[in-house]
Structures are given as C-alpha cells and as structure tokens.
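=== Structure Prediction Worksheet ===
Name of assembly: unnamed complex
Input type: mixed (protein and possibly other molecules)
Chain count: three
Listed entries:
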Amino acid sequence: MTTAEISEHIGEHAPIGGNYLNQGKGIKSWLFTLDHKRIGLMYLISGLTMFFIGGMLAMVIRTQLLVPNGLIFHGSYEAYKHYNQVFTLHGIIMVFMVLVPIPPGALGNFVLPLMLGAKDVAFPRLNLLSYYLYITGAIMAVVSTLLGAVDTGWTFYTPFSIQTETYVVWMVLGIFLLGFSSILTGLNFIVTIHKLRAPGMKWFRMPMFVWASYATSIIQVAATPVLGVTLLLLVAERVMGVGIFNSALGGDPVLFQDFFWFYSHPAVYIMILPAMGIVGEIITVFSRKPIFGYKFIVMSSLAIALIGFVVWGHHLFVNGQSAEWDAIFSFMTFFVAVPSAVKVFNWLATMYKGAISLSTPMLYALSFIVLFTIGGFTGVILGALATNVVLHDTYFVVAHFHYVMMGGTIIAFIGGLHYWWPKMFGKMYNETLGRITCVMLFIGINLTFFPQFIVGAEGMPRRYATYLPQYQLYMIASTVGAYIQLAAFLLMAGYLIHSLVRGKKAPANPWGASTLDWSMASPPTTGNFQEMPVVTQGPYHYDDMEYDGRLGGFVHVDPVPALAGAGVEH
Amino acid sequence: MSFNFAPGAANIIQMTTLKLPGVLAAWGLPHSDAVTGPDVQFLWDFILGVAVFFTVLIVVLMVFFSIRYHAKTKNQVGDHGHTHNTALELTWSIIPLILLMIMFVLGFKYYLNMDTPPSGAYKIDVQAKQWSWTFVYPNGGISDKLYLPAGRPVRLDMTSSDVLHGFWIPRLSIQKDVVPGRVMTVWIEAKKSARMWLQCAEYCGSGHSKMRARVIVEPYAQFKKSVHAIADIWKQNGKTLSLAAVGRKLHITLGCIACHNMTGAPGGVGPTWKNLAGSKVHDTNGQVVVANYQYLKSAILHPGHLKVKGYPRGIMPNTFAAQLKKIAPNGRALDALIAYINSKSKYANQQSLPPELRKSSTTVQPSAKPKTAPVKASGLPAAALPFVSKGKVLVQTFGCTGCHSVTGASGVGPTWKDLAGSAVTLTTGKVVTADYKYLREMILHPGTLLVKGATAGVMSGTYGSMLSGPKHPHEKKLKAIIWYLNSLSDHANKASWPPGVGTKK
Amino acid sequence: MTDDIDLPPHALNAAAGSSRQPMLFVPGAGAMGVGLLVFSLSVLFASSLIGYLYIRAQAPVVAHLRLPNLLWVSTAVLLISSITMHAGLRAIQHGRESRLTRNLAATFGLGLLFLILQAISAVDIFHSLQLSNIAMARVGIRNTGGLAPGLTPVVQTHVLIAAFYVFTALHALHVIGGLIPLGVVLQRAINGVYSRNYYPGVRYCSIYWHFLDVVWLVIFVVLLATF
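=== Predicted Assembly ===
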C-alpha cells in the first residue's frame, strides 16, 4: 500500500479537515450538541477544571500541614474552621465532580459508542441533559461555597451537618443534581450497550472498557438513588427537623451513615471500574497480545459491581454496629478483594511473552498496577476487624483511599487520556515529556501518600488542622510529594496544550489497537462510521496490522472482516 | 503567618535518627500497651507480610516482563498461545481467597475479644462534647485526664452531648465512635504504666484537632490515689484551696475552656471569660445587661435562656447544672466557677462576686455539707432522715424530677407525691400496693411492671447501673431514694420503708 | 416490534455525518430506558421507606395521629387515572386515536386533581401538627432540643408528620414530573402523531404512570400501618 493510496483512504472517510471538532461551528453548535464526542469533551474540560480546583485545595491542605500548629490556618477555632472548609470542598469536588462523573462522562462518552460500532449513545438528548445537570450541580456547589462553604467533610455525617451554620442545603441539593446526572448517564450507557452494538458484536466480543462501563452503569442506576434520598432527608432534616437522622429528635445518626455508605461504597467501584477497564485496554495494546483470561476479567468486573453493594458496613466498624453485622461486612469485604486480585494477575499474564513497548499510556497502566496493589492490600488491612479498630479514621485510611483514587482512578484516567488523546484531537503529544511526567507523578504520589500510612498507624487521625509534633517529618515528606505532583500536572498541561497547537498530526491508529474506536480517522467524523462495521471476532488481535513509518501509525494488512468500515482496502 | 520550622527541625533529627528505624522494624504499627495489642500486632504482621510478598512479586514480574519481552520492532506481536488458562486462573483466584479468609477469621476472632467487655471491670464514664473529653470516676470525681489502672480491665461507658466523636487511643489498640443518643462501650486493659494521648478520631467541627486528652496508666495503688485526689476538688496536696482556685480547676475539668478562654482572645465559640464578671453584656434585643452573680449563675445553669449578641443559642450544652450539682450539691462548685471568673475580671465587684466572698457578708462556713431543706417527716424514723436528704440529692442529680414531679403535678411519669404506700393500677388491671419491693423494682427494671397509661421504654433502664457503686450494687443509693419517696407520701408505712434503719426498731 | 420504535419514521431520513446529529433507529431502547428509570426511582422510594420504618421501629410513639380521610379519595383518583391511562394505551393499540386523546386528557385531569387533594391533606395534617405540639407541651416534651437525661428516645409525633410530608412531597414531585411528558404526549395525540403502528410516547407514559400508582399505594399502606 502506498502513501498515496492510504491518504486516499483517509480522505474517503474523513473529508480533509472534516471531523466532529469542526463540523458545526460557533458556541451554539457545542452548547446544544447531541454528539457523544462533543459532550465527552465538554465533560473532559469541566472535569479537568474541577480537578484543578480540587487539586489546588489539596495544595492548601498540604501546605497547612507543614508545621504542627498549621502554617496557613492557626491560632483559633475560626481558622481551623476554614481549614475544615478547605478539606471538605477538596473531598466534595474530587469525589462528586471528578472521580464519579468524569471517567464515564469524558472517556466513556467519547469511547463507548466508538467501541461498540455505534453512531451515538442510545439517548443523545438525555446525554446532554446529564451534562447540564452536572454543570448545574457544580454551579450550586460554587454558590454554596460563596455563601458559606460547608465544613462537614464530604461525608455530611449527622448530627454535625444538621447543626453547622454553613450552607449545607445548597451544597447537598447540588450533589443531588450531580447524582441524577450520574443515574441518567448510567441508564444511557446500559441501553446503549444492550441495543446499539454493531452487527456481530456479541457480548463476549466487547472490549474490556465496555464491560467495565457496563458494570459501572449498573451501580450508578441502582445505588445513586439512595444517595439522592439520603441527601433529600438531610435537607428535610435541616429545613423541617424531620428527626430521622437526629438523635435529639429520636432519630439515629448511624442510619445516615448506613444510607450514605450504601451509595458511597459502591461509588468507589463507580470510580475504580472504568479505571480497570482503561488499564486492561492499554495493557493488551502495548503488549501486542490479546488480554489474558478475557472472561475472568469480565466476570470479575461484574462480581466487583455486585458484591460492592453489600460491603458498605465496613465503614461502620467502630460505631456500635453489632458484631454479627461487623463479621458479615468484613467477610464480604475480603470476598470483593478476590476479583481485584484476579484482574492484577491477568494483566501480568497478558504481559508474559508479549511484545511490550513502554509508551506513555503503558507507563501509566504499570503505575496503576503498583499503586492499586498497594492501595488494595492496605484496604485488606482495613477490612480486617481487629486492625480496622486501630486504624479507623486515621491517616492510614486517607493514604489507602488516595492510593486507590489518585493512584488508581486518576492515574488510569490520565493514562486513558494519553491513550485516546490522538483519537480525540487528532494530534500527537511529546512522548518524552509524557514519560517523564508519568515517572514524576509516580514518585510524587508515593512520596505524598506512603508517609501517610506510617503517620496514620503511628496515631494521627484524619481531618486534623493541627497535629502532634512527632508526626512532622512524615507530613513534610507528604507535602514535598504533593508539590512534585503539582509540577507534574503543570508540565502535563503544558505539553498537552502544546500538542493541540503544534502537535504532529495523529494517524488513525497510532498504537496498533484492534478495537473499533481506532478504525476510523483521527479525529472521527460526527457520525463516527461511514458504514456500519460488522464484527466477526473478539476485540483483541494484533497479527493483521503493520506499522507504517511514514504515517506514524498502524494499518491493516490482511483481509479484515472484522473491520469492514475501517477504511482498509481488501 | 509564622514560618517557624526550628522546633520541627529538632524533631526531625530526633525522628530520623531514633524513631524511624524503630518504626520500620515494627512495620509501622505503634507499640501497644494493651493486652489486646499482641493480637492486633500479629494480624497486622501477617497481612503486611502477605501484602509485601505479593506486591514485591507483582513488581518484580512486571519489571522482568517489561525488560524480557520488550518489543524490538513496532511490528513484533506477542505470543498467541497464552490467552487463557483456566487452571492457572482458578489457582490465582483460590489462593488469594484462602489467604483472605484466614485474615478474616483472625480479624473477627481478635475483634470479638476486643469488643466484649469482661465482667467485673472497673467502670469509668466518658463524656464527649465539642471539643473536650470529661471522665467521671465511680467516686464522683471528674477530670479531663483519663487515669487507668495497669493490669486491670476498665470498662468505659461513653456518651456525647452534641455530635459524633471518636474515642481513639492508638497505643491501647482501641477505637470507638461516640454516637449521640447512645451509650457506647469499650474496654481497655493496659499492661503497664505509660502516658499517651487520647485523640478524637471522628470529625466533630472546628476544634476537632484540639480535642484530645492525656491518658495516664498507673499501678493500681497509685491509680487509686489519683482517683481519690480527683474526687476532692477542694483540696490540693492536702491543702484547702481558695474558691477561685477550685473554679480554675473546674474551668479545665468541665471543659469550659474549650469554648471560653481566659486570655481575652477573640474568635472563641463562646465569649471569653476575661473581664466578663461585672462587665456590660449586649443581648440580641439590643439591650445591655450587667454580668452580675445572678446573671452568671443563670447563664451557666440555664444556657438555653441566654441571648448574647454574636453567640447563637443552643451551642452550649445544658448539662453543666447537673455536673456542678454532682460535684457539690450545695452550689459551691458553681460559686467556685463564678469566683474564678471574677478573679480574672477588672470589672469584678460586690454584685458579681458569689455571696460568700462578698465583704459585707458574714463569714460563710467552708464546709461542703449540703444544706438540706426540712423534710416532711410523715412519721418516718429519725434515723432515716439523713437517708431522705441524701435521696433528695440523688433524685436531683439523676434528673428524676424531669419526669416525676414531687408536688403532685402531672408529668411524663407519675408524680411521686403520695406514691409510696399507695395503691397503683397496672396495665394488666391488677391493683398493687406501692411498697418497698414495688418501688425498688420500678426503679431498677422499669419495663417489667407497667403502670396504667404508661408506655414501655419511656423510662430508661439504666438507673440500676447508675445507682450501683463498686462495693454495694444498688442498695445504698437506692434505699436513700426510696426513703425520700416515703418522705413525700402520706401513705408511707413500714411496708414501703426500705429495710434496715426503720424496721430494725 | 414496530411499537418499540423511538422516533417517527421520517426522522430516520436525516443524513448521517451532517452537522445535525443523525437520528438513531433503536428498537426497544426507549422502553428499556423507561424501565431502568422506574427501577432507579423505585430504589429511591424503597430506601426512604426503609429509613422511616427503621426509625419507627426503634421506639414507641408518644401520641398517635389520624391520617386525613381525604387520602382515601386521592388514592381512588390516582387508581382511576391509572385505568384511564391503560384505556388510552389499549385504544391506540387498536388504532382509535380520538379515544386515546380522551383517555389521556382524563388521566391528565385526574393527575391534577390528585395533586390538589394531596395539597389539601397536607394542610389538614398541618393542623394536627399544631395540636400535637400542644399535646407534647402538656406531657413535657419539647419539640426540639435535647432529651431529658436518662430518658430513652421516643419517636415524637412530628417525626410522623414530617415523614408524611417527605413521602407525599417526593411522590407529588414525581407526579408533576409525569404530568409534563403526559402533557407533551397529549398534545401530540391531539396533533394526530400516534397511530396503531406508532405510539412509543403513550407506552412510556403508561409505564411511568402505573409506577406512580404502585408507589403511592405502598406509601399509603405504610402510612396507614404506622400512624
């Protein structure tokens, strides 16, 4: 195949300059778009903005904790209250506006229909509504912050959240809307996966990421309503004095915790499952070998989603729950660890006898495996009852969930962003800077959060504006790590923005991936596929493509029945 | 903003040279002084051992594969033959499952032991509030420090008067949330003398990070001395203290200091106490009142009626009246607190001072003997009169009068006026006489007999344990209360008198 | 199945790849979407009822209240509206378009009537709230604030009333949320959009409306049993 022929093919399917980014101009064509890719990009931009704000709040927290009496807020309860507001906002923004909505909202929206061979999600208008609910919720959160930022912690535990004078009602209603956005996105994805698969795309021919999104969506639809009710009752509690969560009125504060975690623990799986899906995709592509134990990985995703519904009580081991319930929840918590372990071993087995290239996305995937393993094992320590009692509500817990959320979800999300960046924007970023940033982030995350394990086990509780002087060494190390992370993210923002302006044009398939999302030109056109693709085999197969140095990407060489719409000459 | 790193630097040097190697040697978990400590340590070591083994295995394999199977050319593809292996996959599902189940069983076994208080444990009440801890010892002593006897199990019954708090002593391997509206129980047995920190682990608002208390584990003999010393707040090292000095102690032990500072610094939860006594206070109606003795007294006893500008109502707990009464039923503890407030005020004057410190007043007897109101004898034996007055004090301390009036007025529970010895109709329709046995049963087990019109569960079943002392469960205090009940009743007779004093004659 | 089609056939002609989003032809997607939404909302109602019943089971009630009798009427109204909704669906399945319009209009009207009756009940029970406050003042329990020392918690009357408000308001919001699409469908029925072969909007509204019916019945039974 000659270059001319190839360009002709590209030209045939993506008219010069014609793609979803420039088909339709003006701000209105974005604000009212029904294109899943544009909505995905809007989620991405909103989410990264939120991540930046949440990240800067984290820097405030870390700076405060440089000295035992607090560097920024010190000397009075009023000052500590400001610190409490900062960590509360950090938590709320990161959980409800970044970790839960953005992996499905940004990457899921962009990639899912492409992977399925669909032109869009099942309900494009509903998809846009989800996005605007997200934005409205975020705006309400901002309003509440301007009126009087909440100081309850992101968990809103009663009765403190009933008594505090900050603007809890506004914030909670904002999060309620974010929850509805999440439900509608999940609903949309489930129907899309059920109804919009391309001909021949059987259930067990779907890529890992689709399965992960499917499992995520089930949780979103089934668990999020409970968050909605919890938050509405909290509002009713503040406005009317219902008394359900308030011991002073005959209610039970522990019931609030049960309700809250009935959503919020499955929500942890909403956050981590898409990340696992992304990592699965990256590892198979950059090992150039089909994923090892496809069905085991698929089943483990579904198992995590389902068992994830019955482990919430492990957040309540020290609040007077009966020992029988403690035992049940502890047992289920250990049980849910198995599918996670299976995934890690299967990813490693995929690398065995592969042809591995350590490109930026692959480095992120490998970082994920290490960080997630550490986060997972420390979760096992917390799941065991006797050790939980000693470590509950300490920095050990903070470190554990930051390893899983930051080292897991965010690292995988950033890896996925690098992986699909050429498809999203049609530009290649600087590979060297990409690898350097990944290493910086890996070091930064470990330096930030590993000392927190030790300091927690040593006796430092979480959510402390000030601390005993003997913990200072660890706190300083942690802060230095946070600044390294900040530097890495700034560098990343720099080279990614640079790539948009000056980046090399991306080929259709720069990594040699075999899933349908790489079968069209980069970036795709509004309708994704010129012809309906017909699928005849599983998602991962690397023998039928070849690297073309002039294009900088892979092209198919054999008859490719799987990718009839892929723009390859037979 | 202060950028003083100097004390930190000394700490860091100390830690890196002395502490860090120890921390690493112990795999991070602090040395525990509790009898349950070795269990927790073993489980921690076991899980951490497994974790380190697998983490190292995973990282080594990952790095090895990345190097060994590094693609030489872009077109190289991986080996097809290895896309699944059910036996292998089942192996690495089942091995983790077995290891995890071992961890679960160990964790649960040790936890059951940690969660079940042994019978006969020494009992201390813990009161948590924003943002201080108060410990009430069986002899009535109140302290902001937790004294524990080495080598003996201690049971802690914990309550919160506002929001959630977390009782955490890492070096005693124990943590429990203190949930408002419930009594939360933990038990501790420390192995040897030590000093450590109790820290609040459950987020509770602005002062969360300052909500900590000293924990002092002492040999049993020393512990008994310490607790004895706490109970006598009027003395220190055998010398009688001035009223203001006692107030200074109460300011700390009752936790007033958490909200009311003595330095005059602004930004506290409640108003500062510096220069408060005798000063002018603005209330929410725009009126100005003088903080004289009466004002201070009612502010402490009835905080719900306060209307101080800039300080919302309902923040200050209304539990202080009962606590102060428990310390000194004659109101001297309250006077001590007010004397202390006066001692720190430049506006202090005769009207703001407690009566016994006023210059014009005659010398007040320093004794702490409660002045008891004359009790209606209604034919009770003279020997019972001290019990009657003691009973009256107990009744007020426990807040019985919140539900049971002594005047005949109706309330949540039946009035106590003319109750003893009278005829009572039960829900079953049966009519019984309110004799000693009946009264005793009603107080100790309120659910078993139900008076007509009453609802089960309204009256707490905890009075039995509240009345019990370390040596004489129930009897002494219970009898005193029942003597008091008899004193209120015209129907009182020998059958309704407690056995002992009166009946011996 | 043809009755599962989401959009009128002419929408399918929109050109792929144009700046306007191409319309999708997805058999069965709409019904599945409505089904999932109903499932999700069921979880919402179920969890709020479980929370209430849990608190209610913890402790005895100080004073019992009577539910307004009007609730029986509003329940009947909602049940009838479910019947008219179903009649509408059956009508269009047999191609009787004017009967569809009549039944949809009746459903809409009954839905509005239901909301008005619920509002009257809510005002009614507000008076019992004031009565119960007086009752509680008499037995010495303050409506807000801490419990007397040593007193075990009791469920106070206003917890029941507040639960009543929360449930009816939550349900009423969903009724309002159902009236809006029902209004749209009614308008489209008047315009003659639906036919024997094409009536997805009617179907979705019908699923949702029956769901509202069932949820209210469950709430009503729970209130009857616990007040």
